[in-house]
């Protein structure tokens, strides 16, 4: 329930900013659990992991509590951040076109430079792949 700015991490932490479609769906749950399970490994690399969806803060809280998540979840209910990172895509569901969040991840180094932009990724194994990208930043 508080505002978060990437600027607060600059010169201190790398940031993994991952976008996901919806709280408490199978792929999104797997991804959030995987990132949470690796929280200590990311922290050892001075890295903060932030998950973003268009769900509201109350939905995030219920999702976090239901699955024991430790990763920080941010609400982008107005899609402002999603638009800036170009993660919205049009989908047709039952003949109706809707805008949805494409599963995507951005790795930002301590200086605030975007180092990796990964669009349309699969949830399974993704946290491990991102962890390896962060390890390379520290070499």
Explain this structure to me?
The chain is α/β, with parallel strands linked by helices. The chain has one domain (12-137): Glutaredoxin. 33% of the residues lie in helices and 29% in strands. It contains five helices and seven strands, in the order βααβαβαββββα. Strands 3-2-1-6-7 form a five-stranded mixed beta sheet. Strands 4-5 form a two-stranded antiparallel ribbon. A hairpin with a 2-residue loop joins strand 4 and strand 5 (96-101). The longest helix has 12 residues, at 26-37.
Instruction: Give the beta-strand count.
Output: 7
Instruction: Write down the domain tally.
Output: 1
Largest sheet: 5 strands, mixed
Give start-end ranges of low-pLDDT stretches.
Answer: none
- What's the N-to-C terminus distance? 35 Å
Mean pLDDT score, rounded?
A: 94
Strand order of the largest sheet: 3-2-1-6-7
The outline comes out as globular
Q: What is the second-level CATH architecture?
A: 3-Layer(aba) Sandwich
How many H/I helical runs?
5
CATH superfamily: Glutaredoxin
